[in-house]
Amino acid sequence: MYKLLISPILFLFDAERVHYFVCEVLHLAFKIPFIPSILRSVYTYEHPGLVQEIAGLRFRNPVGLAAGFDKNAEMVDELEALGFGFIEIGTVTPRPQPGNEKPRLFRLKSDRALINRMGFNNKGAAVAAHKLKQRKSKILVGGNIGKNKDTPNEQALSDYLICFRELFDVVDYFVVNVSSPNTPGLRDLQEKGPLTSLLRELQLKNKEKLQPKPIFLKIAPDLTDSQLDDIIDIVKVTGIAGVIATNTTISRANLKTPQQEVDKIGAGGLSGAPLTHRSTEVIRYLCDRSENAFPVIGVGGISSAQDALDKRRAGASLVQIYSGFIYEGPGLAKRICKAIAGN
User: Fold this and answer.
1) Residue 177 counted as an annotated binding residue
2) Dihedrals φ, ψ of 132, to 5°?
3) Cα–Cα dist 93/65, whole Å
4) CA separation for the pair 92, 288 (Å, rounded)
């Protein structure tokens, strides 16, 4: 019903406005007493074979919602009812920021893809922490953290430490985002020297805690093999929990959408089906080259159960969806869980 009736109507309107409209509808519906249980019965699939322990955390299933959908941790309880095994909030920055100018979210329907240049629009780490303190569900939550746009790279560590401190008591794991293409200069932090220093300092603060939290690194799909080799070395040297592969891409290769339309949209990170193959390649490279030395969470172009299975076979311990959730609807997580349980 979603693909036949609902999405054709929603896709007539601006993508970002539709996002907030859908979130508001879901939020209001959740206040009706019987709606949460109905949603869980329709969209949740439970099977003992789906339960996994990764980085010391117990996931009820290996299908998560990627960062970007619930930037301010306002929808965790509602999204839990849609069958996810974990939710990643953010990207969160220390201070609130409006993000880039609108419009900044675009659909490439013929490619089943999205281009976004949101620019870490969020209400700040303190607001996200407050929202998470109010949640009722026990689903695992990851905190995806970044720096403010006006913070120079030389001072980026301070921003990540602020987010780490604000969110530590209310998230189950952290994700260090240095791979978004929509904050000027951010990807420069992926270079070996700055990234090693950043992660090492975060880990020092983490180890001061009575119960440290797993820290993952989210990387771009546009890295070369030698840069991926650096990532493997960095994970081993700093002792972080693992890698999330991958973020959005700046590539516009092999799109079905007319070039003129793509050019008109302009800059931004591309997600969805065009990223499927490359993200799986990166996962396979990291897992093979490191000899599965650390867990990899696979994300990028998962629009079907088969896409998720392919990433699992490439070595991903867990998977996340975002654009596929938009195009395929809320039943995608359940279909993936069923496929994984059957393999």
Assistant:
1) yes
2) -70, -30
3) 19
4) 32
Question: Are the CB atoms for 92 and 122 separated by under 8 Å?
Answer: yes
> How many CB atoms neighbour CB 149 within 10 A?
18
The stretches in the chain having pLDDT less than 50 are none
Q: Which residue has the tokens 């040297």?
A: 237
Type of residue found at 80: E
The residue written with tokens 């990643």 in the block is 88
Residue 207 annotated as binding? no
Query: Residue 280, annotated ligand binder?
Result: no
In 3D, which of 222, 219, 149, 156 has the Cα closest to residue 184?
A: 149
Domains of the chain, each with CATH number or no CATH? 2-341 (3.20.20.70)
State yes or no: 91 annotated in a binding site.
Answer: yes
197-256 pLDDT, tens digit per residue, is 999 999 999 999 999 999 999 999 999 999 999 999 999 999 999 999 999 999 999 999
Q: Which amino acid is at 277?
A: H
Beta strand extents in the chain (DSSP E only): 52-54, 57-59, 63-65, 86-92, 105-108, 113-116, 140-145, 173-177, 215-219, 242-245, 269-272, 296-299, 318-321
CA-closest candidate to residue 335, choices 321, 317, 314: 321
Separation of alpha carbons 25 and 137, rounded Å: 19
* 151 labeled binding residue: no
Annotated catalytic, 180? yes
Give residue-wise pLDDT tens across range 50-90: 999 999 999 999 999 999 999 999 999 999 999 999 999 99
Closest Cα to residue 111, out of 222, 311, 255?
Answer: 255
Q: How far is CA 218 from CA 65, 143, 240, 297, 300, in A?
A: 14, 12, 12, 9, 12
Q: Which one of the listed residues 37, 41, 110, 180 is annotated catalytic?
A: 180
How far lies 170's CA from each of 73, 129, 132, 206, 213, in Å?
A: 11, 6, 6, 14, 11
90 is in an annotated binding site: no
**Would you state the structure tokens that stand for residue 165, as one six-digit string?**
């401190």
Q: Which residue has the tokens 């896709």?
A: 11
Q: In terms of residues, how long is the chain?
A: 343
Q: What is the pTM of this model?
A: 0.97
